[in-house]
Amino acid sequence: MSKELIRLMGCSMAFDDELVLDNINLYINDSEFLTLLGPSGCGKTTTLRIIGGFTTPTAGEVLFDGVRMNDIPPHLRQVNTVFQRYALFPHLNVFENVAFGLRIPKTVEETNAAGKPVKRKVKLPESEIRERVLEMLSVVSLKGFENRRITELSGGQQQRVAIARALVNRPKVLLLDEPLGALDLRLRKDMQSELKRIQQQMGITFIYVTHDQEEALAMSDTIVVMDQGKIQQIGRPEDIYNEPKNAFVADFIGESNILDGVMHEDYVVEFFNRKFKCLDKGFAPMEPVDVVIRPEDVDIVPVDKGQLKGTVTAVTFKGVHYDTIVDFKGYKWLIQTTDFHDVGETIGIVLNPDDIHIMHKSAYSGMFGDYSSYSEEYDEIGDVTLLDEEDEEEAGHAE
């Protein structure tokens, strides 16, 4: 079982009377890769800064190994940070950039002959500095780059130098604030794998901030989804994606069709005037709910075999699949399929029980999930009693 390393208890933060972090409760385990994910202004970077000691919360406590750290400055915490701008020294080569922190004398407390505590400055021997720098350059795949100038490196190589410089001091925690934002798409994907490899090899805690859901899903052991200064959901990437807690999480983590529904009973939900089997339970009888259907989970079939029918209104080729927009009585779904269906074609769809995910209604209900740029029928389609008798007959076998 993993050991808890950091805990935030009731942490809030306000700037000029504006609440940017609202009663955050979170624990982070030793050797965990945890990602704070959310849109700009959601509070993720403020949370990171509180952990690093750059910001003191206006309320709440920050604990490291059970010890309160609110008033402990950053340089006295076993934490290092990699920012989006790497802040490397252009006049120093790669070796000296990584060695920079090791050359700063450390203050140690000792007991003198009289039994009294005394402080003195201690420098690392040059042999140990060289050993640790070369070890870190090997970890970040820059062995042999010791004498290169920073200006001679690519963006990805500069990022590796910044990571090596942060890790060479052997922190317990590495904070990463959108470190891949300055890289192009291909390099970002490469560095996602590289960061995960480094974290696993070093066995230390990474706390990563991003607004990129793909980065979060690819690298994290745990994802913390945030919005408006609050935590919306915490979980493993698979759980966050497959079982979102509300419409915001469902929409922010991947594409989602989010519909109004009613839970008749355990494992039975109704939407579009059809009852469907699902895998969810624990809702009140006839409770209004949000229904999430991922675009890749929808099976397109001939109209006479479908549970619902709709009309294709737009098709976009995405390389490995087509993004197909389908109009169901004015409410437009996104369906991702490897088969081409032309605009104007009428199709049927089939949904299996594990394709349908049920969420409680929330403040985000009704805000996401319709792929119409505008639909006058949106409000009407939310009322499942409005489908006509012809549609009842065409999809009657859905029950």
Describe this entry's structure for a reader.
This protein has helices at 44-52, 94-99, 126-139, 155-167, 185-202, 213-219, 237-242, 247-252, 378-381, 389-394, and strands at 4-15, 18-29, 33-37, 59-64, 67-68, 79-82, 106-111, 117-122, 173-177, 205-210, 222-227, 230-235, 257-265, 268-271, 274-277, 287-293, 299-301, 308-317, 322-328, 331-337, 346-350, 357-360. Helix 3 crosses helix 4. The protein is of the alpha+beta class and 399 residues long. 22% of the residues lie in helices and 34% in strands. It has two domains: 4-241, P-loop containing nucleotide triphosphate hydrolases (Rossmann fold), CATH 3.40.50.300; 255-398, OB fold (Dihydrolipoamide Acetyltransferase, E2P) (Beta Barrel).
Short description:
The chain is α+β, with helices and mostly antiparallel strands. It has helices at 44-52, 94-99, 126-139, 155-167, 185-202, 213-219, 237-242, 247-252, 378-381, 389-394; strands spanning 4-15, 18-29, 33-37, 59-64, 67-68, 79-82, 106-111, 117-122, 173-177, 205-210, 222-227, 230-235, 257-265, 268-271, 274-277, 287-293, 299-301, 308-317, 322-328, 331-337, 346-350, 357-360. Strand 14 and strand 15 form a beta hairpin.
